[in-house]
Amino acid sequence: MTTPLRVVKLVLRPILGLMITFFLLMACKEEKKVIAKKAYEGPISEIYGVNMTYSDSARLVVRMSTESQLTMPNEDKVYPHEVRVFFFDKLGNNSTTLRSDSARYIRMKNIYHIMGRVLINNQIKHETLTTDELYWNPDTKKIYTDKPVDVKTSEEVFHGVGMDANQDFTDYTLRKVTGVVSVKNLP
């Protein structure tokens, strides 16, 4: 005859054994680490051997060439290598050239940020400008900078800080002239 106490022991033993096994297995379970994924911040496209032209009424106005263009997720364009920009007059002649070490097109402002050993050469007036950084706005057709600039004409060299000019560098204003050197009589 089976006593009620014996029935309880027979039922509880397997349940207790399963519970102990379950807890032991849970204690040995390896924890998985959750790794947060970072959003990709690199370029969404890369173009090599870039040679772009801007025209107005089927007339060539500006030509830009560079080794590569990177388009970023915000649609800005990065030009990590030397950039050359050629401005053309109404007759189609190359009137001014601009070169820099790199540049960036900022889409939200529609401006080009031109950086690193910037040189502008106006072939008509035989004048050059050197600076470390400037901005070019294709809508207003203006270039400007707050950085130190040197402008060399056939007779003088102007040193200044800040400059505003039209894009072909035929008309410019230095914001603060810090020095003028006459080179007219130098050999």
Automatic annotation (TrEMBL):
Signal peptide: none annotated. The keyword Cell membrane applies. InterPro entries: LipoPS_assembly_LptC-rel, LPS_export_LptC, LptC. The chain crosses the membrane at residues 12-28. Keywords: Cell inner membrane, Cell membrane, Membrane, Transmembrane, Transmembrane helix. It comes from the Bacteria. PANTHER family: LIPOPOLYSACCHARIDE EXPORT SYSTEM PROTEIN LPTC. This is LPS export ABC transporter periplasmic protein LptC. It comes from Arcicella lustrica. The gene is lptC.
